Every structure is written in C-alpha cells, then in structure tokens.
Amino acid sequence: MRIPAAILTLITGMVLVLAGLWVGQNVNVLPVDASANAPVYDELFKVLFSIGTILFVGIVGLIAYSLVRFRRRPGDQSDGEAIEGNLPLEILWTAIPAVVVLFVGIYSYDIYDRMGGMAPLNDHSMHGMAHEERTWAGISPVSLDEESGITPLSVDVTAMQFAFIFHYPNAEITSGELHVPAGQPIALRMQANDVIHAFWVPQFRLKQDVIPGQPTLLSFTATRPGRYPIVCAELCGPYHGGMRSTVIVDEPETFQAWVNQNSPIASANNVTPVQS
Ligand code: CUA
Q: Considering the entire predicted model, what is its pTM?
C-alpha cells in the first residue's frame, strides 16, 4: 500500500514543527540569566530559535530531497517539464512568510515593551533644562520606579575612554566595579565624558548607550548572586575592546557589608545607600 503524498507531506510538516518547537525549548546557548527581565528576553529567543529551526530544516531539507529525488537519470537527455505559474502555491508561499514576519514583529515589540525598552532614554523632566543643568542631581529616584513602590538603588555611572566609574551618592563610594544587591531595583544614571559608549551585561540581557551630553537611564533587578562582565558595546576608540568591568551581585547582607567597609561615612552610622 502506498501512502498518499499529501498525507506524507502533512506528517513530515507536523514532525518538523514539533521538532522545531522542541529544539527551541531546549536550546542552551545563552549565558546564565541573572536579572528579572532575562527570562522575558529568553522567551523571545526560544520562539525565534524555534521558527528559525523549522524554516532552516524545512527549506534545506526540501532542497536536499529535490536534488536527490529529481536528479537527472543516466541517459536522460530530454528537457525539463515546462511549468509556468501556480497561483495557489504562490499565494501560500507569500502568505506564510507574511504571517511569520508579522508575528515576529508584534511579539518582539511586546517583549521589548515588557523589558522597558519603550521608556524614554532619559527623564522627561530634563528636556526643558539648559545643557549645564542636565544632570541627574535634580531627579527624584522615586519617580524611576513608581509601579513597584520600592525605591531603587541609584548608582551614577560615568563612562570614559576606556573605563566605567560607579558612584554611590548616599554612601559616597566610588568604585571601578559595580556592586548591587540581588532582588532590589537598581537605577543606573549614566553619563559619558567623551564619546558614545554602551553599558552591556550579557547575563542581564540588557544594553544601554551612554551618550555625552545626554544622560541615560538603565534600570534592572539582579536576581542571581555572582560576578558578571560589564562590556562596552559601542566602538569608542582604540582600546574599546579593553573597556570592561565587573558587576558583582551580592546577597543584600553581603552588599551592605561591602557598603559599610568602603563608605567613608559608614563607620559612624549604618549607611544605607538607598536614597530616601
Ligand atoms: Cu567604551 Cu567601547
């Protein structure tokens, strides 16, 4: 008994889609997820990886199959069949990519929005200010995270050729490495001294430009204690590749101990770096 070609195609297609979904769910090529928004990003990555797998295996598989199945047999000198147009097929292979691209576009937008990507680059309240006044000094950190009601820990970040400098205003700590407590919202208020840099932590799935003359904001909540690389992700000069630092995510107690140890004003009273 011969299985009809249509049934065979349907089964192959179903196996392909299921296999693609499985690969997407089990793909493990990203670094560890260490921030609250990393799982959101990874969700998108898995969906895109599934779609990519299905398309790649489907298209390359079909080409490989056709190469073998429709190859020229020995002694066959005849011309190929003259085939001209197939409207249903053309509609199908236009509609499928259109739906896929539309879905990916809308879904990506949704994920980007959920990651806070649609928030303005910096605070609205600064736009009316004169250039010299455009610093973070006048901005209440409370306005940065109205939704959760938790005051974020504000850290001033200065990027320059070729280093990141971190300053904790309330604790009066200046550091070459970024220390943050796990589980607390962090607001990085970033400025560049010279050219455009970009603050990137792959484990946080976050990247934000640091621009001279235009302060930018990056907020996140670290979830997994550990040491992660901070990478400058914008070509900023000859030593751009060496412009790296480390973010150390600590348990809150360990972080507080670090603050007490390093703050010049901490010995007298237990300084909390959180602005109130
Ligand atoms: Cu700073 Cu690249």
A: 0.75
